[in-house]
């Protein structure tokens, strides 16, 4: 009987009832079974025909397994056979996507089978564990809680009761069960990871079985894995696992261990470290653990590199200088048969005493290299890798060096005729190379996890161990750049680039001190120069990688890494030339055949024009005229053969090395010519692509990602270098309008944002503080034409596109960026369309659109042509009031900001138009605004900050006839109480500053009843407390300014209130330098200036009843301190900052001569006070005050 017939016979025996042969009747085709929850679902034969072979096989075997009971005859033989059949089938969905076996069927099968396999039948236990791993792993089953507990208890019990020879398979099944379920297995994990636990025993360094050690480490790694949203594993067990992983990584390969098995163990430990670090911060000890881990990872990221014999440090210590690494040992490495290099292969990574470069020449045995980017499986096809990759080549000491291949020629690629391995040896070497590649990948993935888990300031100390800070002339340091330039595996190079990118991300503050523009020092090397050297080394290495890389995926990461470098490096502190070289080198890649490479190249250009804009070097690059050379006719063309690429790479490297970075080529400016980058991006957005490598033909536009990247570069150009792009404003507007007219929402959105950037650039040119001559600005006629063209295009359709709220919001921002002077010259129909659109969009449900529309109205209310229109102001006020009650905090914040702008407009109209505007404005609407602002002042700080500003403006705008009305009296009192509470609160300093400003603004209203209101005492007390005790000096300055606003003595009420304000100002003046925060100390001069001004203001208003108290104050210790500060106030010139603050508070500034004149007038007024009926105490006080002012005046005149 053949084997297939035996199998068929066996299956029939299993399907037949016990003790009977299979009947011929088709009704007995399925085995009889009792109904239960564990029973397999009935599948009709008509549905079986629709299933894949794997599903049919699983269904048949599953039905037979479910039919078995613990008391079945020949249970062992039947289980054995069914296990073999299930294990023989491949259920991998990656190979057969049609496999669709339900997870609940698998869970039900495994739970039922676990009851059939007793732990005494160890062979069946092993097969069942293999089945658990096989099904869960290949079908990617997510188990329910009951299945998880059943399988956990079974495998853990099997580890305790079964013989040691089964433990390898049991632990493998356990690792599959706990994968991603570690937090749910705390009880079972405790017995495995506690002291003396089996997993700790099997994963220890003393474990002889590498296979058992591997599965134990893998199981511990899976326990530590945390899926998103899951709670982390208990810290105790996570730390235990981490220490085991770290010890494994620090240990060297035992001499009698196979290299492949050692790599497998290391891979499991690397995976465990990665899982421990994923999704959290570093919590595994101090610097020693981190340094030990980084040292081990650095050693392993060079695993399998031939010709490398290093004395690796056991610990990396944080230091600004490079970590010392021993010179490669002259002793040969320990011979290892599986990894020995071929006899005719040089080991250029091994260094010797000879530091002289080899002469260039061609190796006769070398064949042209196939492009690495076209390899389907790079790791499997690579021969013995070499450490050096064209830059350095050194032979071992004592032997004549072999001819060095051409520059960038990869010496690790050998044809079959060059290989000295047999087929069997070649397979062994291929597997070993693949293992080494996976170790290097794992090490780099772990370093990436460390970079993300460790704080930046801690990580910066280890930079020199992974990024070189000097182009040393001796043995090259082994860093990430070494791997990027010389590792034979594109995947490993990609991982190294990802690590470098993560290190550069967010490093702007660290790199900000880099500088090499100063003359070099001979006595010592400053840290700033070392950082600058690191930046230059990164540029040099990444530029070389850009030239040599042919794998599109890795090339994209190279350009992305350069983008992060450009975004974080301080080029304004570095010698010119770095960006110039990069600018020219990246240019051909905007026409690369791979879309992702083209997008990343454009992103890099965007980073260049964004960094520290406007940068003089970039400005020169943008002004360079196009030399007429085609972008495709470049030495870096992807279609050139290898020899041509090598020649161009060599020449490019030579030119980059010989050109002095201090003297970049000065471009010849071409009047009126738009930048090359601007023309390129415009063509990419609007013009049909040049089909050099696309087969579609026709007028096909560039792919969407390329067009979006080009639009982003245009936005960056307009934002940072508007003066260079303003000549092409019409073309940019046409391109943006073209994008708005297309159907892709992302393209429409970027087109709208580009228009907004254009509008913002125009507004910045017209700001008075920029002092830009009219000849350098875009003329008002051009601005009007620009917006007339835009507003007559598809922007209105974008405003009405309710399907894409983000696009609507962006279109609102575009309307908000219209220059006010240009808006006034637009046709009335166009103006009305803009206003109507914005008013209508505030009624939409989308909070994003509502927020943008309310913001735009808050800007329009300041337009000179609109702010005096009472109807428009009223319409805007009603919209803002409705938005203040919105449920979205973002909408309320924008509404409060717009209300602040609207009330600013009311005050401005009151001053420019006069009482007519106040009378026309609705009293009822004004009352609603006052009440809404009062309610908003109790909202979150984002809303409160603008609400209190609006309250101050409204209180200043109110007329006396309105204040005396009963409808206004209570809201008025509530508004002032709200301001007082805000000043006294623990809100953010911005909120408190605005509240102080608002009180001072309210005090400027002469109709405000400061003399009689009940809240006056609380208002002055709050300001006095703020001026003496607030930690923020800007709040103190504003509170002092508010205290000096009232212009009549009666506003300060009685002498007690007046002197309370005086003593508060004096106390604040004495402690004006008491702060531990350097950021606050810089405002101390401004604070003293404002306090001195406030004290003089009080003296100018003082009356007879104040003289006794003022005399006592000035005659004592307070007087000497006040005299010292006032003397400085009258003699010193104001700083620019003080002048600006004074203008903000009172609208004018006072030079020293005017201050002395004000002092003379105060003294004169004091002497002319009527003394009729005045007591002796008042006369004595007046004499003391007058003497104080006379002495102060004499001191100032002398100085």
Automatic annotation (TrEMBL):
<protein>
    <recommendedName>
        <fullName>HEAT repeat-containing protein 6</fullName>
    </recommendedName>
</protein>
<feature type="compositionally biased region" description="Pro residues">
    <location>
        <begin position="329"/>
        <end position="341"/>
    </location>
</feature>
<feature type="compositionally biased region" description="Polar residues">
    <location>
        <begin position="1"/>
        <end position="10"/>
    </location>
</feature>
<feature type="compositionally biased region" description="Basic residues">
    <location>
        <begin position="353"/>
        <end position="363"/>
    </location>
</feature>
<feature type="region of interest" description="Disordered">
    <location>
        <begin position="1"/>
        <end position="30"/>
    </location>
</feature>
<feature type="domain" description="DUF4042">
    <location>
        <begin position="438"/>
        <end position="618"/>
    </location>
</feature>
<dbReference type="InterPro" id="IPR025283">
    <property type="entry name" value="DUF4042"/>
</dbReference>
<dbReference type="Pfam" id="PF13251">
    <property type="entry name" value="DUF4042"/>
</dbReference>
<feature type="compositionally biased region" description="Basic and acidic residues">
    <location>
        <begin position="364"/>
        <end position="375"/>
    </location>
</feature>
<feature type="region of interest" description="Disordered">
    <location>
        <begin position="647"/>
        <end position="671"/>
    </location>
</feature>
<dbReference type="InterPro" id="IPR011989">
    <property type="entry name" value="ARM-like"/>
</dbReference>
<feature type="region of interest" description="Disordered">
    <location>
        <begin position="1133"/>
        <end position="1154"/>
    </location>
</feature>
<dbReference type="InterPro" id="IPR016024">
    <property type="entry name" value="ARM-type_fold"/>
</dbReference>
<feature type="region of interest" description="Disordered">
    <location>
        <begin position="327"/>
        <end position="407"/>
    </location>
</feature>
<feature type="compositionally biased region" description="Low complexity">
    <location>
        <begin position="647"/>
        <end position="667"/>
    </location>
</feature>
<dbReference type="InterPro" id="IPR052107">
    <property type="entry name" value="HEAT6"/>
</dbReference>
């Amino acid at each position: 009987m053949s084997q297939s017939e035996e199998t068929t016979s066996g299956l029939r025996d299993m399907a037949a009832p016990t003790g009977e042969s299979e009947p011929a009747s088709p009704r007995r085709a399925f085995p009889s079974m009792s109904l239960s929850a564990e029973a397999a679902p009935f599948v009709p034969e008509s549905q079986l025909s629709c299933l894949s072979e794997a599903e049919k096989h699983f269904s048949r075997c599953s039905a037979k397994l479910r039919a078995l009971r613990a008391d079945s005859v020949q249970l062992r033989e039947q289980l054995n056979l069914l296990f073999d059949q299930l294990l023989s089938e491949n259920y991998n969905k990656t190979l057969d996507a049609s496999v669709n076996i339900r997870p609940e069927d698998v869970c039900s099968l495994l739970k039922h089978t676990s009851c059939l396999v007793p732990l005494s039948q160890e062979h069946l236990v092993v097969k069942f564990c293999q089945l658990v791993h096989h099904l869960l792993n290949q079908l990617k089953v997510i188990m329910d809680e009951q299945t998880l507990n059943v399988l956990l208890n079974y495998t853990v019990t099997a580890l305790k009761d079964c013989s040691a020879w089964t433990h390898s398979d049991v632990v493998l099944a356990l690792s599959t069960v706990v994968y991603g379920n570690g937090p749910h297995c705390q009880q079972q994990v405790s017995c495995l990871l506690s002291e003396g636990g089996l997993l700790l025993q099997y994963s220890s360094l003393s474990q002889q079985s590498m296979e058992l050690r591997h599965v134990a480490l893998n199981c511990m790694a899976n326990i530590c894995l945390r899926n998103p949203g899951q709670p982390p594993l208990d810290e105790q067990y996570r730390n235990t696992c981490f220490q085991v992983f770290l010890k494994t990584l620090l240990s060297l390969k035992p001499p009698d261990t196979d290299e492949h098995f050692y790599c497998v163990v290391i891979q499991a430990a690397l995976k465990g470290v990665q899982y421990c670090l994923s999704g959290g911060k570093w919590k595994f000890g101090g610097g020693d653990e981190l340094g030990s881990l980084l040292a081990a990872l650095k050693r392993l990221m060079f695993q399998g590199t031939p010709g490398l014999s290093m004395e690796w440090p056991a610990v990396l210590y944080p230091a600004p200088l490079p970590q010392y690494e021993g010179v490669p040992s002259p002793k040969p490495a320990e011979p290892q048969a599986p990894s020995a290099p071929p006899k005719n292969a040089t080991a250029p990574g091994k260094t010797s005493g000879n530091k002289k470069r080899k002469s260039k020449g061609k190796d006769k045995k070398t064949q042209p290299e196939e492009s690495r980017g076209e390899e389907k499986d790079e790791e499997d096809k690579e021969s013995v890798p070499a450490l050096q990759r064209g830059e350095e080549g050194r032979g071992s000491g004592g032997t004549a060096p072999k001819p060095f291949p051409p520059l960038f020629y990869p010496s690790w690629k050998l044809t079959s005729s060059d290989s000295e391995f047999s087929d069997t040896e070649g397979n062994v070497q291929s597997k070993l190379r693949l293992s080494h590649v996976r170790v290097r990948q794992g090490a780099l993935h772990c370093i990436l996890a460390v970079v993300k888990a460790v704080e930046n300031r801690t990580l910066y100390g280890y930079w020199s161990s992974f990024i070189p800070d000097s182009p040393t002339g001796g043995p090259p340091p082994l860093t990430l750049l070494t791997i990027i330039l010389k590792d034979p595996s594109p995947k490993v190079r990609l991982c190294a680039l990802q690590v470098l990118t993560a290190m550069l991300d967010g490093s702007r503050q660290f790199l900000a001190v880099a500088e090499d523009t100063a003359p070099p020092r001979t006595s010592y090397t400053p840290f700033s120069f070392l950082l600058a050297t690191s930046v230059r080394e990164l540029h040099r290495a990444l530029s070389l990688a850009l030239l040599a890389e042919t794998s599109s995926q890795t090339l994209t990461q190279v350009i992305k890494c350069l983008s992060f470098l450009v975004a974080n490096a301080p080029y304004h502190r570095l010698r010119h030339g770095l960006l110039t070289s990069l600018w020219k080198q990246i240019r051909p890649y905007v026409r690369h055949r791979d879309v992702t490479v083209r997008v990343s190249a454009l992103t890099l250009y965007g980073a260049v024009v964004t960094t520290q804009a406007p940068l003089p070097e970039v400005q020169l690059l943008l002004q360079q005229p196009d030399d007429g050379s085609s972008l495709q006719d470049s030495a870096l063309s992807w279609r050139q053969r290898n020899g041509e690429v090598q020649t161009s790479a060599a020449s490019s490297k030579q030119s980059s090395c010989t050109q002095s970075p201090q003297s970049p080529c000065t471009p010849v400016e071409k009047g009126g010519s738009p930048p090359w980058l601007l023309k390129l991006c415009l063509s990419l957005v609007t013009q049909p692509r040049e089909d050099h490598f696309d087969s579609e033909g026709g007028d096909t536009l560039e792919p969407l990602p390329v067009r979006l990247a080009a639009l982003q570069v245009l936005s960056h150009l307009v934002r940072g270098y508007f003066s260079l792009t303003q000549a092409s404003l019409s073309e940019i507007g046409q391109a943006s309008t073209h994008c708005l007219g297309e159907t892709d929402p992302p393209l429409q959105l970027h087109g709208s944002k580009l228009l907004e950037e254009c509008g913002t650039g125009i507004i910045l040119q017209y700001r008075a503080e920029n002092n830009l001559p009219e000849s350098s600005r875009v003329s008002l006629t051009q601005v009007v034409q620009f917006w007339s063209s835009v507003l007559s295009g598809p922007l209105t359709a974008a405003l009405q596109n309710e399907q894409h709220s983000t696009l609507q919001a962006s279109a609102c921002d575009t309307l908000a960026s219209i220059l006010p002077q240009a808006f006034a010259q637009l046709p009335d129909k166009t103006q009305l369309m803009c206003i109507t659109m914005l008013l209508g969009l505030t009624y939409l449900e989308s909070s994003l659109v509502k927020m943008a529309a309310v913001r735009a109205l808050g800007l329009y209310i300041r337009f000179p042509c609109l702010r005096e229109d009472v109807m428009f102001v009223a319409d805007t006020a009603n919209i803002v009031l409705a938005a203040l009650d919105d449920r979205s905090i973002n909408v309320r914040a924008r509404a409060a900001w717009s209300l602040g702008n609207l009330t600013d407009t009311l005050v401005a109209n009151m001053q420019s138009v006069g009482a007519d505007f106040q009378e026309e404005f609705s009293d009822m609407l004004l009352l609603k605004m006052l009440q809404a602002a009062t309610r908003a002042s109790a909202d979150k700080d984002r809303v409160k900050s603008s609400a209190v500003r609006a309250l101050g403006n409204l209180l200043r705008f109110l007329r006396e006839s309105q204040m005396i009305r009963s409808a206004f009296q209570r809201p008025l009192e509530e508004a002032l109480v709200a301001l007082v509470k805000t000043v006294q609160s623990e809100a953010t300093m911005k909120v408190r500053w605005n509240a102080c400003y608002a009180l001072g603004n309210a005090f400027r209203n002469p109709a405000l009843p400061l003399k009689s209101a009940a809240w006056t005492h609380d208002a002055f007390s709050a300001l006095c407390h703020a001026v003496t005790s607030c930690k923020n000096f800007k709040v103190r300055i504003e509170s002092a300014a508010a205290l000096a606003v009232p212009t009549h003595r009666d506003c300060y009420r009685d002498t007690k209130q007046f002197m309370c304000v005086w003593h508060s100002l004096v106390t604040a003046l004495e402690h004006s330098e008491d702060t531990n925060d350097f950021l606050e100390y810089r405002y101390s001069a401004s604070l003293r200036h404002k306090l001195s001004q406030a004290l003089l203001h009080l003296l100018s208003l003082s009356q007879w009843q104040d003289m006794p108290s003022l005399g006592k104050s000035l005659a004592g210790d307070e007087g000497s301190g006040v005299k010292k500060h006032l003397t400085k106030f009258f003699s010193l010139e104001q700083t620019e900052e003080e002048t600006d603050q004074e203008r903000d508070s009172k609208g004018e500034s006072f030079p020293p001569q005017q201050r002395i004149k004000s002092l003379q007038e105060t003294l004169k007024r004091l002497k002319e006070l009527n003394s009729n009926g005045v007591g002796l105490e008042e006369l004595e006080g007046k004499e003391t005050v007058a003497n104080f002012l006379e002495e102060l005046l004499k001191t100032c005149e002398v100085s």
